[in-house]
Records
---
Amino acid sequence: MGLKEKLESGGFAVTAELAPPKGTDTTRLVECAKAIKGRVDAVNLTDFQSAVVRVSSLGAAILIKQQGLEPVMQITGRDRNRIAIQGELLSAAAVGIKNILALTGDHPVFGDNKQAKPVFELDSVNILETATCLMQGKDLAGNPLNGTPEFYLGASVTPHYDPIELQIIKMEKKIKAGAKFFQTQAIYDIQDMKRLKEMTLHLDVKILAGIIPLKSAGMAEYMNKNVPGIYVPEHIIQKLRNSQDKVKEGLKIAAELINQLKDGKLCDGVHIMAIGAEENVPLLLDMCGF
Amino acid sequence: MIITKQKPLEEILKMLKDVQNIYITGCSLCATSCMTGGEKQILEMKERLEKEGKKITGYVVLDPSCHKLQARATLKKQKNELEKADAILCMACGDGAQTVSSIVDEIPVYPANDTLFIGEIERMGHFAEKCRACGECELGWTSGICPMTQCAKGLLNGPCGGAKDGKCEVNTENDCAWILIYERLKKAGKLEQLKQIKPPKDHSKTLHPMKITVSR
């Protein structure tokens, strides 16, 4: 069963994020993929995440597909104009990649090629509209396509955001533009998901809660200070401070949260972003009983 | 206003390294306000260049440097000073420098300034970018705040997830334009205006270089 079928049939979906390699050595990517094969519904391949030069999300999605896993190809508007975005989407469809996650993209100043020209011709809403347009057999300019792609479109939302109403308005636009599922920014406070759930009751959409397992108290403090949209409550940081094995404790905290989310029916699945510690994902899956 | 910043003197000297006799032009409008091309700055530049052994054959504050007819008439009266010059150092914006260059095409024109943006004077010496000259003004539905300029990514359909405490992640000194727009529209009871999907800009309407003729 694919991601779409799992979500549409009311199942609790699990996706995990893998970062394409910086360079041509795909060993780690392939190993991490193999380790979660059959245990997750799909794998997200990031699109030059943090504006860092890497193998593209399309390239990595093809590699993942070759390993027998279902990819979610992330695509941002940061590096490509509408011609390139349409080409990338068509290329994905041509090799059988259906799941697309449309994002705005981090600004190049956060990356490792800071001198790059930021494109941002299409934002996340426009990318979704573009994909929807392609699915109707035409390009953005109305020209007919020879062969029509089929996509399952996704987008992101930040539950810990002030004012949250602004996130909901954008979410509604993304749904109007074709988004069927959302993967959220990482959450740690269950209240953030409860609030999002309440505010999206009117929306016909599937939401996968973002999970980043913590590796130390310092990591939590760093994210609270520097990463927009991420908030780790103090009682969680305290747990990490008091623990011997921080990584294991971080995974335990993540597993508890996942179980709470699942039992409380607060989301339709979870999206695990291990950011550099992908080898720990199978452990987390074990802890959750997935 | 076109906001300019004077190039470092070393860069100016590098451009002028094979030049001995220099004529300087300034501009009465934007560059004067930016303190990069008024009479005061011209005289300072004259002194600095003379210290480097250059000869200044003359100078003028064009009124303004981007007005081709005015600039031509003014420079015509400077014929003698210009004839003695091997180069013109233009202390205006990139437009002003090109206007001068098109009038005095036998003398090379060098820019003393870098042209940065269209902006406003917040107070003396403080300039802020306000318009990207996108060709289709969006201010009508955004409560007078330009998302093309004030949002670091120029987004038209609302914010990215990157705001923290209402500040932009790209430059935390800046407010998130979309939060400002949201707050203003909410106060005015016009949040509906945010809900409409904005298509991407039509870049075929702004092919460069643009030129327009307005009938009188």
---
Amino acid sequence: MTSELNLFRIFILVIGMSLVTYIPRALPMLFLKEFRLNPSVENFLKLIPYAALGALIFPEILFSTNHMVSSVTGGILAAVVAYFKGNLLITVVAGIFGTVLYQWLFL
Amino acid sequence: MKRTMLIQGLKAGIPIALGYIPIAIAFGILSRAEEIPIEVSMLMSLTVFAGASQFVAVNLLSLGTGIGEVIVTTFILNFRHFLMSASLFQRIEKNLTMKKLSVLSFGITDETFSLASVTELDHEERLPFNYLFGLMLISFFAWNVGTWIGLFMGNILPTLIQNSMGIALYAMFIGLLVPAVRKSIPLLFVALIAMTAHSLLILLPFLPSLSSGWNVVIATILASFIGTLIIEKEAFQ
């Protein structure tokens, strides 16, 4: 892992990774303005954030810490705070608090 | 006005930064444990700036996987940003230069995208460049600082904290989703469909097992598509 050749290969790898990550991020932003989108496509794109949030949250949240019940505890506490309070920062702190509390009490 | 937008963006990004630091620390610790050269890990956080794929890359490197395979995996994992970029573009202030758009493109992650997409600013219909730039800058900064902490002093953190921090980003996603679906039943449906679809893609044995990146992409497209049909049907009635 430490030889010169290997280090060079890994640098090439990182450059490659950054390109294949950047290109999908940039293409729509840079070239979409040429087109006039039809209303259905616009509706579709507007729903993407909420669909993506759903898909990102579940089921991965179950495996987000080393203990499933503690993750669920944090998630539920975050959801309750988000529902009644709505503040993002407090929600994140509540989620961490719920998980830490569970792990501290029961593990 | 421009400056206050930048500051507003930086402030709005604090929850993301809070979630990124522990994850980036974990990344630093992992790459140190797998004996990846420190400068490579730092360069990765600076130029790739995408959590999941960086973890996977370190993992594959430690297994001795070839360069080509790691790059293809990274592409598959991060292709969802293509959808996010197209969606976010509809919400950014119009007539930005290519230079500014290419800067903003670099900052698209699951978290900056989600936060920016659900943000409603006073007096602004679309999101100004400075606001998004601030939001992305603080996230990028946190990701890199976290990486350095993990690389150079990761082992001094208490295990309880290390174990629990994985919840932070999910709590943030919940904090973004819940207030939105509280006000709108169709959005609630879309989110639930996406969760169900994603679970089925993982669980059903007869579906080909795809990488998690593709699963998210397929679940997102499917749920948005069904949601579009529902909304348009309602609009006609």
